[in-house]
Amino acid sequence: MARKFIITAEKFIMGNVSYHNELVPRISNEKIPVLGGGRWDVDKEKKIVYLWGASMDYGFAYPEQIKKAMLSEETWISQSLHEFQVKHSPIISDQLPDLDTFTDLLVIDND
Fold this sequence. Notes:
By secondary structure, the protein is mainly β. Helix content is about 10%, strand content about 35%. It has one helix at about 65-70; strands spanning about 1-5, 10-15, 35-45, 50, 55, 60, 85-90, 105. The strands form 2 sheets. Strands 2-1-3-4-7-8 form a 6-stranded mixed β-sheet. Strand 5 and strand 6 form a beta hairpin. The longest helix is centred in the middle third of the chain and has 9 residues, at about 65-70.
């Protein structure tokens, strides 16, 4: 199992799964195209969500697509991540890349 995410035009879905396609049933019963995916990690002390990599099934999730999906009204993000900074790295790796490769994407605001 690994921390993975996928995005559609209107949803950001994250979970602890073996394969990205295991996250697809969480979208809906409709056939909505998945735009990309990757991996994630959370640093609770620093209040940062790290997103990086790509999905073997769905490809690379571009930062502007991730941001749009995360800001969509269709995306639910846990209150426990309120005010966390989201950072993105283009590095494709199974492990968290060097933190110098990450750039700021957005701050989670559940209000």
